[in-house]
């Protein structure tokens, strides 16, 4: 993390429930309003809002340590900040900081708080990714994981169903966790699922027959079939086994994944919620699926994003290496 000597509490002021950098609040009421408006009206995703606020606050904390006022910030200052930031964090993190700073300044320019965007001319570090870093499971490990989950408890049925949604529909964990009972519905002779994706978008696709089985068994045992507006995947009260009406959060799902992977005896390092999305995509492509259809099923904007989850080349590379017989 970039080290800044200025105490943070001297560079931050509190306005209601909002924390504002002094650099912004000192620029006047209009700047303060646009800053708060940026995070409340412009950014709807809570995770993005949290990340952007952290990155932008750190930038203005640095500006405060340099005795810079808002109107005094120019491209050379942003470039200096980026240069220092690169010494402490990875290129992807720097690019995230740059995206947050650029978007905020764009918003301030549109609101006539600043004349130009000082970050527009600053280039971030180059970072090209051709292969994702998220570890994935083999089909054998995935099957072993499913089989290891006890189905004589409601928690076990819930966990198995949630994992299956991520594997068989390539769903992001947050999209799966936001599902309501009515988001698993009949369409002709098959059952479909509706995922609540980023930006308020809905993504619908048919359910795999195994996913149908796991969801049917879970919903029947939970007795939530007649509660269409209720959350599909819910939490439990401590160790009582009593289901609540609250939905699972990403952190709860991550903790569940860690417990289930360990209980299955799988020595897999770094497995997380996103691993099951990559597992489903890789297995689909390995069995003859097309990148175009995988992109559509995963609801990706670009096939390049889908390709990051494709690990079918890993086995090919290993086979080639083993040909070096000495």
Account of the 3D structure:
The protein is mainly alpha-helical and 326 residues long. It folds into 2 domains: 8-110, DNA polymerase, domain 1; 139-321, Intergrase catalytic core (hpI Integrase, Chain A, Orthogonal Bundle), CATH 1.10.443. The chain is built from 14 helices and 7 strands. The protein has a 3-stranded antiparallel beta sheet with strand order 3-4-5. It has a two-stranded antiparallel ribbon with strand order 1-2. A two-stranded antiparallel ribbon has the order 6-7. Helix 3 crosses helix 5, helix 7 runs antiparallel to helix 9 (209-222) and helix 7 (154-169) packs across helix 11 (273-286). This is Tyrosine-type recombinase/integrase. Keywords: DNA integration, DNA recombination, DNA-binding, Plasmid. Residues 132-323 form the Tyr recombinase domain. InterPro entries: CB, DNA_brk_join_enz, Integrase-like_cat_sf, Integrase_catalytic, Integrase_recombinase_N, Integrase_SAM-like_N, Tyrosine_recombinase_XerCD. Residues 30-109 form the Core-binding (CB) domain.
Q: Any idea what the CATH superfamily of the largest domain is called?
A: Intergrase catalytic core
| CATH architectural name of the largest domain | Orthogonal Bundle
Query: From N to C, what is the helix and strand string?
Result: EEHHHHHHHHEEEHEEHHHHH
Calculate the mean pLDDT score and round it: 85
Largest sheet: 3 strands, antiparallel
- Any idea how many domains? 2
Helix-strand category: mainly alpha
What shape does the CA trace take?
A: globular
Q: What is the alpha-carbon Rg in Å?
A: 24 Å
The strands making up the biggest β-sheet line up spatially as 3-4-5
């Amino acid at each position: 993390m970039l080290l800044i000597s200025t105490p943070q509490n001297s560079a931050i002021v509190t306005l209601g429930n909002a924390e504002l950098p002094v650099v912004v609040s000192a620029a006047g009421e209009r700047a303060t309003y646009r800053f708060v408006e940026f995070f409340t009206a412009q950014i709807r995703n809570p995770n993005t809002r949290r990340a952007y606020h952290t990155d932008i606050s750190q930038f203005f904390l640095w500006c405060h340590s340099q005795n810079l006022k808002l109107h005094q910030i120019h491209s050379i200052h942003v470039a200096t900040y980026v240069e220092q930031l690169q010494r402490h964090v990875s290129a992807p993190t720097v690019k995230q900081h740059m995206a947050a700073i650029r978007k905020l300044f764009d918003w301030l320019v549109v609101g006539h708080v600043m004349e130009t965007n000082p970050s527009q001319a600053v280039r971030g570090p180059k970072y090209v990714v051709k292969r994702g870093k998220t570890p994935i499971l083999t089909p054998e490990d995935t099957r072993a994981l499913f089989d290891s989950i006890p189905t004589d408890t409601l928690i076990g049925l819930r966990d198995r169903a949630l994992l299956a949604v991520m594997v068989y529909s390539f769903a992001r964990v947050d999209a799966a966790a936001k599902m309501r009972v009515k988001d698993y519905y009949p369409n002709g002779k098959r059952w479909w699922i509706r995922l609540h994706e980023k930006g308020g978008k809905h993504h619908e696709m048919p359910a795999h027959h195994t996913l149908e089985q796991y969801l049917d068994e879970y919903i029947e045992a939970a007795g939530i079939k007649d509660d269409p507006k209720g959350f599909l995947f819910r939490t439990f009260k401590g160790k009582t086994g009593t289901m609540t009406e609250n939905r699972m959060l990403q952190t709860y799902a991550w903790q569940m994944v860690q417990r289930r992977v360990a209980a299955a005896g799988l020595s897999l390092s770094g497995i997380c919620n996103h691993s099951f999305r990559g597992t489903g995509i890789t297995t689909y492509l390995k069995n003859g699926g097309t990148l175009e259809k995988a992109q559509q099923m995963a609801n990706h904007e670009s096939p390049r994003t889908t390709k990051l989850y494709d690990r079918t080349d890993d086995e090919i590379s290993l086979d080639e290496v083993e040909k070096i017989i000495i």
